[in-house]
Design brief:
The chain has 14 helices and 22 strands. By secondary structure, the chain is α+β, with helices and mostly antiparallel strands. The chain binds zinc ion. The site of zinc ion (ZN) has 3 residues, from loops.
């Protein structure tokens, strides 16, 4: 039989690459080398991609960043001069959760094909930064899913959740103890200031009837109107669009748990150690994507591709609004330091319905679904606030704290001659430290009282201005009552009960 024209052409001309998932009929996921080869092949095909190395993983693997732009841009300023959004897609942060990696490769290929064919495409409206294999070392620690990812419906061999240091990279955004997060700070978050960040996962929690679940930031420390758009417009909009386009049911990420003797739907934590909340502190739209681990690998990849693509199409349409909502504006007089989980709405939730005596299956889609109306805890409300200062002052000897703040893109100015300043001090009445380490650190929580005083700030201290651009982040890192900032993670030592918090707040 004669080969088809397409097959004949493929023999003589370079071909668009296929993912390992596609080649294997969704029985295998891409290795690091295959992921890199796929992107290199796109570049060889003339795709609108510039491939950069932004760091080295703990085991020495180059950490990739693909810049997709048409025309190509070198930096954020060029992108913004063209009126384009900057969007960051990050996949495989937990390397057992592999479909984000496959889906982002397929999305890169599809956009490249559209550009090649001269068809309208997302790059008309945005520059897309892609790291399809954020946890590269974890990806290579292939083992049976029964070891690395129990209860997931294929592929049989996947990588580990942790990176090679044993860190959960989705808890590392504040302390940045991993080369992966440092690379993301140095080469993505700070220089590109993405307008939108998508972090791609797979959940293995409650068995429900959704094709995929998602979350906006749950931390309220971001501009109110931006959070309102992210949580109340963008996410429900994408949910409705995918229902209309593909018949998919989507819902807020969460698990069914019992609270006060009632079944409720509950989201993840408020801390900015999570990617989706970290980017909120940067006044950026955050989207958590969670494919469903009991769906098969192909379905999870299709769902992730469809969800990401729908999000990209929606933010492309809303780009002028997003750019306006992200414009730096004066900070509120107070912002939150303590938060409680809160109900956003009460709504029917689609859960697996088991027949009497039926055991809950470990994997595969539920045979039957029932809608149970319950409170949806999809957000946190502020239960304690602190005043927002004009600046923070701290002694120059806190070198690791200063280095970390600079890495997060904060301005840290040395004080070269003494300054008289009205400040708020914080007297520590209670010092609590976790008995066991979390991610290598025994977390610290402080209680105490503020007092207004005039102080002389000596030379050798540093000043961290609280500006509309970076004030949310500075506040989160430096407030004494925070539960996820510099003191929490041990960067300010162990300020004991009865002592003064080493950071002073400059009050207007
Ligand atoms: Zn995950």
């Amino acid at each position: 039989m004669l080969p088809t024209l397409a097959a004949a052409l493929a023999l003589v001309s370079p071909a668009w690459p296929q993912t390992r998932a596609e080649i294997s009929g969704y029985t295998e996921t891409s290795t690091y080398a295959e992921t890199m080869a796929f992107m290199n092949q796109l570049v060889k095909m003339g795709a609108p991609i510039q491939l950069r190395t932004i760091g080295q993983s703990p085991e020495g693997r180059p950490i990739p960043l693909a810049i997709m732009a048409h025309p190509m841009v070198e930096n954020a300023a060029q992108a913004r001069r063209q009126g384009k959004l900057v969007v960051y897609l990050q996949a495989n942060i937990h390397a057992g959760e592999v479909e984000g990696k496959e889906a982002t490769l397929m999305i890169m290929r599809r956009i490249s094909q559209q550009v090649r064919a001269g068809r309208p495409n997302l790059l008309n409206h945005m520059v897309i930064l892609v790291n399809p294999i954020y946890n590269a070392d974890g990806n290579e620690k292939f083992a049976s899913q029964s070891v690395n990812r129990p209860g997931q419906d294929g592929p049989e061999r996947v990588g580990t959740r942790a990176n090679a240091q044993g860190f959960d990279l989705n808890r590392d955004c504040i302390k940045a103890a991993s080369p992966e997060m440092r690379a993301a700070l140095d080469s993505v978050y700070v220089p590109w200031d993405p307008d939108v960040t998508l972090d791609l996962h797979t959940t293995n929690g409650t068995r429900h009837g959704y094709e995929l679940t998602y979350a906006p930031p749950t931390l309220p420390t971001m501009p109110e109107a931006l959070l309102a758009y992210n949580r109340d417009v963008l996410m429900p909009g994408v949910r409705a669009q995918l229902k209309a386009d593909r018949g998919w049911e989507l819902f807020d990420y969460g698990n069914a748990v019992t609270r006060n003797n009632q079944m409720v739907w509950e989201t993840f934590g408020y801390e900015a150690r999570y990617v989706t909340n970290y980017v909120a502190l940067r006044r950026s739209i955050g989207i958590l994507s969670e494919a469903i681990s009991f769906h098969n690998f192909r379905d999870r990849t299709v769902a992730t591709d469809g969800f990401v693509t729908s999000c990209l199409e929606r933010v492309a349409r809303d780009r002028a609004l997003i750019q306006r909502l992200r414009r730096p504006a004066p900070l509120p007089a107070e912002m939150g330091v303590r938060f409680n989980l809160a109900v956003g709405r009460t709504e029917p939730v689609l859960l697996e319905k088991l027949a009497p005596g039926q055991a809950r299956p470990a994997t595969g889609r539920p045979a039957a679904i029932e809608a149970i109306t319950m409170p949806v805890y999809d957000r946190f409300t502020t239960v304690r606030t602190a005043r927002v200062p004009a600046a923070y002052y701290l002694p120059g000897r806190y070198l690791s704290a200063i280095r970390l703040m600079r890495r997060h893109g904060l301005t840290v100015e040395p004080i070269t001659s003494p300054i008289n300043q009205t400040v708020e001090t914080f007297a520590i009445s209670e010092f609590r430290q976790a008995a066991r380490p979390f991610q290598g650190v025994r977390l610290i929580t402080l209680e105490g009282t503020f007092a207004r005083q005039t102080r002389t700030i000596p030379a050798g201290w540093v000043r961290v201005p609280v500006t509309p651009e970076t004030g949310h982040l500075a506040f989160h890192l430096l407030e004494p009552e925070g539960t996820d900032g510099l003191v929490t993670w041990g960067f300010l030592g162990e300020p004991g009960q009865g002592t003064e918090f080493p950071v002073l707040k400059a009050m207007p």
